[in-house]
Amino acid sequence: MSGVRSPTELSAVFRANGLRVTPQRQLLFRLLYADTTHPTADALFTVASEQMPGISLRTVYQTLTDLTSMGELQSFDFDGTATRFAPNLGEHHHVVCRSCAKAADVHVDGTTHLRIDGLGGFSVESSDIVFRGLCSECAASATITSITSITSITSSKGSRS
Amino acid sequence: MSGVRSPTELSAVFRANGLRVTPQRQLLFRLLYADTTHPTADALFTVASEQMPGISLRTVYQTLTDLTSMGELQSFDFDGTATRFAPNLGEHHHVVCRSCAKAADVHVDGTTHLRIDGLGGFSVESSDIVFRGLCSECAASATITSITSITSITSSKGSRS
DNA sequence: TTTTATTCTGCAACGATTGCGAATTGCCAA
DNA sequence: TTGGCAATTCGCAATCGTTGCAGAATAAAA
């Protein structure tokens, strides 16, 4: 279940970088430690606001940026809307649901055997793979959605005229 | 060299969909036909403005959106800045330069042999692979950049004191 | 405790994109 | 060829995610 480092470790990292450990940052450390959802800054801000009303969205952005530049988080942009933040695990890739936009980590084997055609002197340093499709929850509710297009259902118990 | 369909073909597609063929659209059809750079709406707008001063950025967006929803173009979001548009070729992937942000198409073999670990009931419908690195031009100028960190160069011809 | 550099916050500004309304115009029919 | 009308263009305002800035608040060293 390796995610982001523990709040204590992150505090140490911040101090080691000459940054201060504030209540706002500690809260975010805790929230990130418990999070596996690749949250946006705003999603994190919403949760943080419940435990610390008045915390600024600006501070959330700032802290996420700091963590990212220290290598503790990675930022992703799956769909051109909001940036997602997640623990900086090693080589891994993502699945993103086209319905609910939730993301999850996946491990992919075989990337080293990919044959890339058409690089003209381009030197590849890294690769990001995003698999798109439907998560199991959305696949389930998709069925329900199609059922809602039925306009009327006659009960087997009702009298039929 | 298969790119987007020819201006004539695109005009036919538009009419077939009940859309009109305007001078603005014809211009964009021509520009896209000659383009291999995965341009942004704004980049296309700049070029279009040279040939048709007064064309609106709004119209460029509109036409790109139309072409995309008709399946003639695909839109990509590599870096969270501006959306890129390119001919809707089949299964292909991209290389993106981390220095100049230019993108190019690549063909990748072996994707069907990828082993994906950690899908919990997620059904994969498609995959996008983005290879990041340095294009050959930027790799070349990167060398020059490091040379500029030299503070002074003494000419072999100059007198030394 | 005092001090001070860092951080927080709120707000304004930014770039990309879209909604909208008024003026313009492609295109079909007569 | 000429209306006539729906589609299109244009410009502007508004939106969203994100960042710059400045003044108030504060962590932490002395």
What features would you describe in this structure?
Two copies of one chain form a homodimer. Chain A has helices at residues 7-16, 23-33, 41-51, 57-69, 136-147; strands spanning 73-76, 84-87, 93-97, 103-109, 115-117, 123-134. By secondary structure, the first copy, chain A, is of the alpha+beta class. In chain A, strand 3 and strand 4 (103-109) form a beta hairpin. The longest helix of chain A has 13 residues, at 57-69. The A-B interface holds A 77, 79-80, 83, 95, 97-98, 104-111, 113-136, 139 and B 77, 79-80, 83, 95, 97-98, 104-111, 113-136, 139. Chain A binds a DNA duplex (30 and 30 nucleotides) through residues 18-22, 24-25, 40-42, 54-59, 61-62, 65, 80-83.
Topology:
The structure is a homodimer of 161-residue chains.
Chain A: H1 7-16, H2 23-33, H3 41-51, H4 57-69, E1 73-76, E2 84-87, E3 93-97, E4 103-109, E5 115-117, E6 123-134, H5 136-147
Parallel strand pairs in A: 3-6
Antiparallel strand pairs in A: 1-2, 3-4
Helix pairs in contact in A: 1-2, 2-3, 3-4
The structure holds a DNA duplex (30 and 30 nucleotides).
